[in-house]
ATP-binding cassette domain-containing protein
Amino acid sequence: MLKGENLSFRYDDRQPSILQGIDIEVAPGEIVGLSGPSGFGKTTLGKLLAGYLTPTQGRVMLNGQPLPKRSYSPVQLIFQNPELAVNPRWRIGKILNEGLPPSNDLLKALSIHNNWLTRWPHELSGGELQRIAVARSLGPRTQYLIADEMTAMLDANTQALIWQAVTTYAHQHNLGLLVISHEAPLLKRLCSRLIDLTKTRN
């Protein structure tokens, strides 16, 4: 279980809390949708659950233990803009192998072509680069994936391809998936449970 308990967060004491008293959990194999108004802290919550930020109050637990501070994280976070998540000075092959190499089946499901591996990030389209980001995040040790508006900027065909690959992988590997999105139809179609962030305050 990936669990956030009584989570609060503020950047400094002069600002109000972005999040306050949030309880949230995602079970292995579960696909959970997270919605809420813009600016309400959805991305901040995703960063807390993935260990990118430290909560001002509360804690994040993975299988009853604190998130590991070093090495490959079992909780991976994918953002809306893949250009911000990759090193522009690395070729695609090196980016894919930064953690643990994804399986050939996953590369095939995401329609990632071998000739991409020698290219630079700027030589791929946004949709192609997002598929690389997804493949890199779904390594053998990944237990949970947080998808923060992962396909919001992509065309319909690329969205469908990515979600088909990710949900199939999640079912096959008992992966817990938290989908952060403004798109209610997407959340209803993908998720077994929906969380409205406006209703999770203690």
